[in-house]
Write a structure and sequence with these properties.
By secondary structure, the protein is mainly alpha-helical. The protein is 60% helix and 11% strand. It has one domain. The chain is built from four helices and three strands; from the N terminus they run H-E-H-H-E-E-H. The termini are far apart.
């Protein structure tokens, strides 16, 4: 069996709302719907009736992206602060940035 056929044969791991909470994703149901509609959170799967679940791998990818965004933002803020401090020190001593 080809590799992609094997991958298709393995069903995704599904998690419910309670499991989202256990993973630390404590958004309310209405807020999750807003995020999903905006394409900012993985879309839920309707399993019939009122039962919905999310694909675990997609949720963990969302978490990984948020961590990467946080780390990138922190690095950018750190660089901006260093630049501002350097400019302030130089201005204080009458040195022009060049």
């Amino acid at each position: 069996m080809p590799l992609n056929a094997q991958a298709a044969a393995v069903p995704p791991v599904l998690i419910d709302f309670a499991e989202l909470k256990r993973l630390g994703i404590t958004f309310s149901r209405p807020y999750l719907r807003e995020l999903e509609a905006a394409g900012k959170f993985p879309r839920r799967l309707s399993l019939g009736g009122r039962k919905v679940q999310w694909v675990y791998a997609e949720v963990m990818s969302f978490v990984a992206r948020r961590v990467a965004e946080r780390d990138t933002s922190a690095a950018e803020r750190s660089t901006a602060v260093r630049t501002a401090v350097r400019a302030a020190v130089m201005a204080r001593h009458g040195v022009e940035a060049g």
